[in-house]
Design a protein that fits this description.
Elements lengths: L5 E5 L5 E12 L2 E8 L10 E7 L5 E5 L3 H14 L9
Antiparallel strand pairs: 1-2, 2-3, 3-4, 4-5
């Protein structure tokens, strides 16, 4: 992985959490990113999908997708787009 694919987010305690950028997803006039955590149990790592939003400074930020049905649709689209690259487990 190169540094261009590295995204650092912060947890609730302000600790840096590195992620690998996997994909940019456009769905229903909104934009999302698919990220893979780079720490922890990589064998059982789960893809994180966040909505891309513009903050008050006009910069890109990320929001959690709370709608579980929408999240499932986004994940299915990600699986369809990358079925040859990853081994998905349901």
């Amino acid at each position: 992985m190169n540094n261009e694919n590295l995204i650092v987010l912060y947890d609730e305690d302000g600790n840096e959490v590195p992620f690998e950028f996997l994909d940019y997803i456009e769905y229903d006039h909104c934009n999302y990113v698919a990220l893979l955590p780079l720490e922890g149990d990589m064998e059982n790592a789960e893809v994180l999908i966040l909505q891309v939003v513009e903050n008050e400074d006009g910069e890109q930020d990320f929001d959690i997708v709370e709608d579980t049905k929408l999240l499932a649709r986004l994940y299915r689209q990600f699986q369809d787009d990358h079925r040859d690259e990853f081994n998905f487990r349901d």
